[in-house]
């Protein structure tokens, strides 16, 4: 088994990455009654940025020069928006519905690529979009009462914004190292989330601060594990494993929060996952 290309290792790393990603929503849901989304987001980014800053200092800051300031800014804006919406959705609705709808990202990406990058969309991807959209409707269940629980719409917005972020990352990958990308992403996150958190700070129990630190570690783990996964396998080869987050969300939701899973959520999750898998294979 080659160290340069291993589907098995790539799959293991990407599953671990989305386990870390799902854990972020679990911690966010736990602190719902004790800390605002704005303050929690700021603390998470501050923890992650502090660790990355120490790493760049050890490397004598040689990873900081960049000529892609605009793309770093775009990634920062969409990244902080996606994370904040993700945590907010986890607090407003079930972990399963949150993770299912955030995973509409692979379905939004080709639509955005068509509009902004003028890329041609194959019939397989159009099929994926139709399947994924139908699954999204099943989960969201749009009706007159949808605004009474906006969590699903917030999660869907997180999936859309994250699709824009991934397109920016794809452009940055052409010339920027993972550490360079992570440094500017977290720096921007600290500055913006700090501004948004003004007026939202409050007395916080020590265990909530521990949750915040754990979420910051999960944020870093998700980024680095994802990078590690793509060192061993190409995104289209293992991208479907991102849907493991739906399974993790179901386990956490049932075990920790006694959430029930509706038949509509199961059907919609299967359709969205199927659409994402077809989209990934279609782009290949």
Can you characterise this structure?
- This protein has 284 residues and is mostly helical.
- It has one domain (7-283).
- 76% of the residues lie in helices and 0% in strands.
- It is built from twelve helices and no strands.
- The protein has helices at residues 7-30, 37-58, 69-92, 95-102, 105-117, 123-140, 151-172, 178-197, 206-232, 235-238, 244-257, 263-283.
- Helix 5 (105-117) crosses helix 7 and helix 5 (105-117) packs across helix 12.
- The longest helix is centred in the last third of the chain and has 27 residues, at 206-232.
Mean pLDDT: 85
Total individual domains = 1
Oligomer: single chain
Number of helical runs? 12
- The low-pLDDT segments are none
Write the layout of secondary structure elements.
Elements: H1 7-30, H2 37-58, H3 69-92, H4 95-102, H5 105-117, H6 123-140, H7 151-172, H8 178-197, H9 206-232, H10 235-238, H11 244-257, H12 263-283
């Amino acid at each position: 088994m080659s160290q340069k290309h291993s589907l098995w290792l790539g799959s293991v790393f990407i599953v671990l990455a989305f386990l870390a990603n799902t854990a972020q929503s679990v911690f966010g849901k736990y602190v719902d009654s004790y800390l605002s989304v704005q303050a929690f987001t700021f603390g998470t980014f501050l923890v992650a940025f502090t660790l990355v800053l120490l790493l760049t200092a050890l490397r004598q800051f040689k990873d900081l020069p960049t000529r892609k300031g605009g793309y770093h800014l775009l990634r920062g804006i969409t990244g902080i928006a996606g994370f904040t919406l993700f945590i907010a959705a986890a607090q407003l609705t079930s972990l399963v519905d949150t993770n299912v709808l955030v995973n509409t990202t692979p379905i939004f990406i080709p639509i955005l690529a068509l509009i902004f990058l003028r890329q041609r969309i194959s019939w397989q991807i159009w099929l994926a979009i139709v399947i994924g959209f139908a699954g999204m409707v099943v989960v969201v269940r749009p009706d007159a009462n949808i605004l009474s629980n906006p969590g699903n719409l917030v999660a869907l917005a997180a999936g859309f914004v994250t699709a824009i972020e991934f397109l920016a990352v794809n452009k940055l990958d052409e010339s920027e190292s993972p550490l360079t990308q992570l440094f500017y992403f977290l720096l921007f996150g600290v500055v913006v989330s700090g501004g948004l958190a003004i007026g939202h700070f409050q007395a916080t129990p020590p265990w909530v601060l521990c949750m915040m630190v754990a979420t910051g570690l999960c944020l870093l783990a998700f980024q680095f594990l994802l990078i590690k996964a793509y060192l061993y396998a190409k995104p289209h080869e293992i991208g479907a494993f991102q849907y493991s987050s739906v399974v993790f969300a179901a386990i956490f939701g049932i075990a920790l929060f006694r959430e029930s899973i509706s038949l509509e959520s199961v059907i919609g999750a299967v359709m969205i996952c199927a659409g994402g898998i077809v989209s990934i294979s279609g782009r290949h």
